[in-house]
Amino acid sequence: MGELTAALAHEVNQPIAAAVTNASACVRWLAREVPNLEEARAAATRSVKDGERAAEIISRIRRLFKKGTRNGSWLMSTK
Fold this sequence. Notes:
The chain is an all-alpha fold and 79 residues long. It has helices at residues 2-31, 37-65. It has one domain. It contains two helices and no strands. The relative contact order is 0.13.
């Protein structure tokens, strides 16, 4: 059970950490003397995608533990 917990924590943590990194990059692009809006927009877009990926992982984990779910195929679903 410990290995499963560690694997799930990693799967959720990775996109969250990526979202934070991209959000920080966005702030840095905007804080420049001459803000680079194109780069900031790209970083913000990546952050949104990472957040959506984290939400999808959590959704799959919730489905796994719902009563009657016996299929492990959620583990193989990646974007």
